Amino acid sequence: MTREERSMNGYDFTLAGQRLVALGSGALYWPSKALICVSDLHLGKSERRARRGEAPLPPYETRDTLTRLEADLNKTGATTVICLGDSFDDDAAARGLSEDDKLWIIALQAGRRWVWIEGNHDPGPVELGGAHLAELPLPPLVFRHIAQPGHSGEVSGHYHPKATIRARGRAITRPAFLIDGDKVVMPAYGTYTGGLHSHNAALAGLMRSEALAVMTGPMPHPVPMPR
Amino acid sequence: MRSVPDVFNRWFALRGWSIHPHQFAMLERADDPATLLIAPTGGGKTLAGFLPTLVDLAQGGHDGLHTLYISPLKALAADIRRNLTTPITEMDLPIRVEDRTGDTPASRKRRQRADPPHILLTTPESLALLTSYEDAPRIFKGLRRVVVDEIHALAESKRGDQLMLALARLQTLCPDLRRVGLSATVEDPGAIARLLARHPDPCAILEADPGPEPDISMLETDQAPPWAGGGAAYAIPAVLEQVKAHTTTLIFHNTRAQAELFFHNLWLANEDALPIGIHHGSLDRQQRERVEGAMQRGELRAIVCTGSLDLGIDWGDVDLVIQIGAPKNVKRLVQRIGRANHRYNAPSKALLVPANRFEIVECRAALQAVRDHDLDGEPRGPGPRDVLCQHILITACAGPFEADALYAEVTSAGAYADLSRADFDACLEFCATGGYALRAYDQWQRLKQMPDGRWHLRDPRSARLIRMNIGTIQDTDTLKVRMRRTRGGKPLGEIEEGFAASLTPGDTFLIGGQIVRFESLREMVVEVSRDKGRTPKIATFMGTKFATSTQLSDRILSMLAQDDWPELPTHARDWLHLQRDLSSLPEKGRLLIESFPHDGREHVCIYGFAGRNAQQTLGLLVTKRMEEMGLAPLGFVSTDYATLIWGLEPMTDPAPIFAPDALRDGLEQWLAGNALMKRTFRASATIAGLIQRNTPQARKTGRQATFSSDILYDTLVKYDPGHLLLDITRQEAMRGLIDFGRIEQMLSRVGGRIDLLRLARVTPFAAPLFLEAGRTPVEGAAQERLLAEETAKLMQLAGLDREGLQSRA
Predict the structure, then answer these.
(1) I need a labelling partner for B348 at 20 to 30 A (CA). Which of A26, B71, B420, B699 fits?
(2) For A96-120, what is the mean pLDDT?
């Protein structure tokens, strides 16, 4: 384990024999491949909302999301980046990014292998650099946007899972990784994203009974997945 | 002046009634631009408001809308319709009366727009919606009069501000519009008159005969009240005796939680099975209506209730009002007392029941204030800008507008008379672009300027969204509670989402007077089952806590300055003397702070008398300062009068802690991450139209998985700290739940005269604070530590600690 890895706050676990680290930021790190995976960035959400005639939201979510991603890339020294789908709130939002934000993404891509996985919000290819794939098998793991029942070694996103625990009468809710022996469902990484409770039927049905929820935050905390 | 048509005189005579002087006076002033009538409940106030309208319309020949009546309650609108229909039918007048509220079917609403009745009874929100339609000029054509009922209640909230902006709009459409306000007794009628009238029009104030003085006293009980708490369970036998001795009693509580608990305990002691009901705002509408119906039919001997019955339908048979817990506010007490005995010229009878020792002093001070007719109230300050933002959006829905004309119209509303053009422009800019320092996606502005300079909605779809979100009432996020396995069964009521999140299956709590057991949270419905236990494990859900008013706090301090207190019961009197002997009594022009060790910890008790919310904020700010100074505070608890802090080190020099600048700095920093501030932000952001509570998708799916407004708050604080909504949020923080304004008032009253007394042990005044519930631990690293402890425990319990997991993998 390198010094950088030790200084990272993360929860170590094993999936299909591979050591993975769930970072407190909501990113997943795969040390042996120097690979980082983030899901559901929803860049350009405020632009999309305004386009549809809704209230103009503070237009800072792309900047904030990229700032956090850059920090994770610097901290881990990752050379491969996988954006696990719904990276953009829709295809037009990808096109609508400001020049500054586009240049920023290009700068982050420099010297790194970068993969955009298709999501339900962003099915088409983006004009930005990087590979655009429906899914990415990296045996023994596979990266795709929406979990498929019966697969193992699978890393997916889509559901924006969050978990609530009660500590001395106080309820604390955080975005969470859901982890069982077969798969990881990643929390949403984007700044303007909400969450789905782990006890929701869609998630409870997806995860095996011994699943854990790893709550994000300054120090990631594992708990038996609240159902 | 209009004369009373014969048909009216005959109808009054037939019923043995005569027209009251104030009703004549209203008729005489029918052509004044604005009139405010102050009259006690049951004084024929509503008829006084409508008499000029009925006389006008009796001749016939008026086409379309003549009079708008606006009330804060839907139920009141429906009730007034029934009350007006009687004389109209009996005198055979050619007048059509209809009500229009959120409950009116869409088909009737459509017809009302096409063919408005002569008299339309509605609420501020329904009126705002009407003004948002493109055909508003046609709907309101011919409108002569507007009657605002219970204006004293509306004047205290943003609903009133929204209403007055809507009236400004109507006045532009109908320049001859006459305004009438009907109000209960208030401390400053002039302030309400200024709100009501078009600025700077005059507004005459008519005061009806207030009737006889109320018969009000403290309830005598065998047992002394406890040292702390708010339940007043000790008074149950005495309250039951009073219920038996009267026809119908209203038992008012300050919070829903206390009402639920008291009702539960009352039933346990109700051996004669007297019919007693409960009524509060969290109960399901059907349940509330059932209680109201039983009440009107005279089937109930008592109703345990909260502010939900402060206004509304006249119930003639109420002959006693009991206030449980200190009234906190003299004006509200007087208005509640007015709920008893609506027959004119009979005195209202009321009893006060202090819930703890200190409240004996407060109740006594309140009794004196009622006798002195010394009502309290905080001036509301300038019109809130979040409401103005919503008004600008509503205006845009109705059609293109000129900024200059809208500014002129808005400043004709009393609350906005001093609004600067710069502030108005900032609100307009917010509505148009969001008003962010970073200019992004300008092509998607919500409002755009046309070549002729007028503003209009860029996307017509946004009109629908804006209309769906009209209103300023902020219900906290609540979840419906339903009995399990009664799919589609009647909901019991609602609880706050935060409370629901803190429940674990098996927890029991009170709702609607029954104990239920939490089973599960399913699709945003709390499922419960009946529980046979007699004591709920968790007292009950939260509810608003009123703070004792400034004026009442001052009266209490004046009382404490007396040499002796012969008017108080012996136990209370002895307690005050003991405090004076062992420590000191708090004084108006000074701040008393006691410092003493107890149970191995250091304690500080700050007698600020600033009201519960401000004392709570003071606790947060002072502990923050103490933490910085290395005094290691551990937690604190607050009441309306004092804050008790415990920690590891004694406070020795209070001056730097209570320096106003230091506290203000602390407020700024603390506000950035504070949950109350985020709640305040959410309310303002929702009113201003940044957050849409209702969307067409959400209507379809019941609830949209949207991201929390806290994220928007954090984002603005980080990237756009000068944004309009943060400015509005800071301004709101001076009142309400944060109430920093009261802390500033207290500090200026004290003017640096701080007395820190070092004492050997707990003092008589501080002792009850040790028994208060609602302790706040000092935040910070504590939350992460709690989370670490709790998660480790859970993992171990489930056999999922690290070793267990590794062996599995």
Answers:
(1) B71
(2) 94
> Taking the domains of chain A in order of start, what are their residue ranges?
3-224
pLDDT in tens, B495-514: 876 677 667 778 888 887 78
The reply to whether omega before B21 is within 30° of 0 (cis) is no
3-state SS assignment for residue B57: helix
Pairing between β-strand B145-148 and β-strand B178-183 as defined by DSSP bridges: parallel
Look at residue A6 and tell me whether its pLDDT is greater than 50: no
- Predicted pLDDT at B620: 84
**A175-189, B37-51, B448-462: segment of lowest average pLDDT:** B37-51
Beta-carbon count within 10 A of A110 CB: 8
Contact across the interface for B791 and A173, Cβ inside 8 Å? no
Cβ-Cβ contacts under 8 Å, A14 against chain B: 806, 809
Distance CA B356, CA B254 (A): 14
pTM: 0.87
Architecture of domain A3-224: 4-Layer Sandwich (3.60)
Q: Which of B469, B686, B729, B790 to mutate to test the interface with A (most CBs of A within 10 A)?
A: B790
CB distance A181–B705 less than 8 Å? no
Distance between CA atoms of B668 and B662, rounded to whole angstroms? Answer: 10
Beta carbons of B300 and B326 less than 8 angstroms apart: no
Question: Which residue of B lies nearest to A167 if distances are taken between CA atoms?
Answer: B790
Structure confidence by residue, pLDDT tens digits, B192-209 = 999 999 999 999 999 988
Question: Contacts of residue B459 in chain A, CB cutoff 8 Å?
Answer: 52-53
Section A23-30 average pLDDT:
97
In this prediction, residue B700 has a pLDDT band, given cuts at 50, 70 and 90, of very low
Pick from A47, A30, A226: which is nearest to A136 by CA? A30
Q: Where are the domains of chain B?
A: 215-371, 478-530, 583-778, 779-809
Give the CATH number of domain B215-371: 3.40.50.300
Tally of CB atoms within 10 A around B287? 20
- Interchain CB distance below 8 Å, B787 and A215: yes
Distances (CA, A) of B642 to B120, B137, B556, B600: 49, 55, 13, 22
The Cα of A181 is separated from the nearest Cα of chain B by a number of Å equal to 7
Q: Please give the interface size between A and B, counted as residue pairs whose CB atoms are below 8 Å apart.
A: 138
Measure the CA–CA gap between B225 and B559, rounded to whole angstroms: 20
Which tokens hold the place of B610?
Answer: 């600033």
For testing contact with chain B, the best of A90, A164, A219, A221 (most B CBs within 10 A): A221
B691/A55 CB distance under 8 A: yes
